[in-house]
Design a protein that fits this description.
448 residues; alpha+beta; five-stranded antiparallel sheet; 10 helices; 22% strand
Length: 448
């Protein structure tokens, strides 16, 4: 990578059902607990009626929030045990305002009385207005709808709107309700998992579309040259990085290749790399090359970058139709590697290397003429391939180390895609793990 230049609310115990209730006879809390049933209804400090588990509260696995308007205070929820035989803790809210206060992360399920009016919908004809309000209030919680006996149509509609199940108010018993709570909780978990999976698939599809924009299909129809490329982003679990490349053949038979690197690793840098690649392809097909092409790309960079300190390195090569010579322009980028039969692989000249794009207004980038020969392999790469460490020390592979590595791999008979795969894998192994910088490598081969 080019281095940038310097420039729930916790609820009170009385609300949560964890405090011991005072004895109505004035006795101690411990004495009251001995006389209490597993689930009792006691007023909290705000005067709200709350179903509370007096014994083994610390071991309760499930918590139910009951939302029902019951002025008389008669219990409609029987004693319940979970699958392990432990009591289910119950909180009671008389309206949605109280429900919002008691709805903490430890609530597993909501039991909602559909007869309760929704705030601001007292005269509404929508019989499920209160349910819709609760679903907006608690999108991550399982919801059981409570309706009048025999009103199955309303209950089914509640499930269609978003409740996990419905129950008849007059037919509640502990066993039925306990089972319904467990079912609702597991169904909500399953729905959430399916939704996350669908969202993940959608993100993956979007990422693949973006990746196709970053990693283009080369336009080499009619050219005898063979093409191969490898790309590895430096960001963890990312598909996009600041490196970019492209290869096109113009109508006169010239093959143009480019590789570049935007400083940084984030999505903004990746997007800028895509913009520069697309601009390069359009300008190249329009007939621009060399200094004129790079000067125009610098203008694109200056207009599109988010910060004046952002810059990009670039290497462009235009290979003549006969394939024996090429023009080379370098904008602060490492020089390509040329390999020919019977000769050791070497770096192309980089004495006339111009500045990176975005650093110097009005800069110039000389075009050097390079003789390739009849048979050759030309490798363009970003600095992620040469800046990895060697072992545990601070020593980096560098261009000399990369050149020696590629020479050895070619001598072992590796070519094309196999050569690039071996090079990237060996650099990663020498680094002792994944590389932190983006890596892009492309290879053009001419075989008579």
């Amino acid at each position: 990578m080019p281095v940038p230049i310097p420039r729930q609310r916790a609820i009170p115990a009385a609300e949560s059902g964890q405090a011991q209730a005072a004895s109505p006879r004035g006795g101690s809390a411990e004495e009251s607990a001995k006389d209490a049933s597993p689930v009792s209804r006691t007023p909290d400090t705000a005067g709200n009626t709350t179903n509370k588990v007096e014994n083994n509260t610390a071991h309760t696995n499930l918590t139910l929030l009951l939302i029902e308007d019951d002025p008389a205070g008669s219990p409609i929820v029987p004693d319940m045990l979970d699958q392990a035989g432990k009591p289910i803790r119950v909180r009671t809210a008389r309206n949605l305002t109280e429900a919002g206060r008691l709805l903490t992360d430890d609530v597993h399920c909501i039991l909602l009385d559909l007869a309760l009016p929704a705030p601001g919908h007292a005269d509404s004809e929508d019989e499920l207005a209160v349910l819709k309000h609760v679903l907006e209030l608690a999108p991550r919680h399982a919801v059981l709808a409570l309706t009048a006996s025999g009103d199955a149509e309303r209950g089914a509609e509640a499930v269609r709107v978003g409740a996990q199940d419905y129950l008849f108010r007059d037919e509640l018993d502990g066993r039925l309700l306990s089972r319904a709570i467990r079912y609702a909780v597991e169904r909500k978990r399953s729905e959430s998992a399916e939704r996350r999976l669908a969202e993940g698939r959608l993100r993956a599809q979007e990422n693949r579309r973006l990746e196709r924009g970053l990693l283009p299909t080369p336009l080499l129809d009619g050219s005898p040259l063979r093409f191969a490329a490898r790309y590895r982003p430096g960001r963890s679990r990312a598909l996009l990085g600041g490196d970019f490349y492209d290869v096109v053949r113009t109508p006169d038979g010239t093959v143009h290749a480019m590789i570049g690197d935007v400083c940084g690793h984030g999505p903004d840098e990746a997007a800028l790399g895509v913009e520069l690649r697309i601009a390069w392809r359009a300008l190249t097909l329009a007939g621009l090359c060399g200094d004129q092409l790079l000067g125009t790309l610098q203008q694109v960079l200056e207009h599109e970058r988010a910060d004046d300190e952002i810059f990009a390195t670039l290497c462009t090569v235009d290979i003549a139709p006969d394939g024996r010579r090429a023009g080379l322009c370098l904008a602060g980028h490492p020089s390509p590697l040329l390999a020919r039969p019977g000769k050791p692989a070497r770096l192309l000249p980089y004495d006339n290397n111009g500045p990176a794009l975005g650093l110097l207004p009005g800069a110039r980038w000389p075009r050097m003429q390079v003789e390739l020969g009849a048979e050759w392999s030309l490798m363009l790469y970003t600095d992620g391939l040469i800046e990895g460490h060697i072992g545990q020390g601070r020593e980096r592979l560098g261009q000399d180390g990369m050149t020696e590595m590629v020479r050895r791999q070619i001598a072992e008979g590796l070519r094309g895609e196999q050569l690039l795969r071996a090079a990237v894998n060996e650099v990663r192994d020498l680094n002792g793990g994944e590389l932190t910088d983006d890596v892009a490598v492309l290879l053009l081969d001419r075989v008579p």
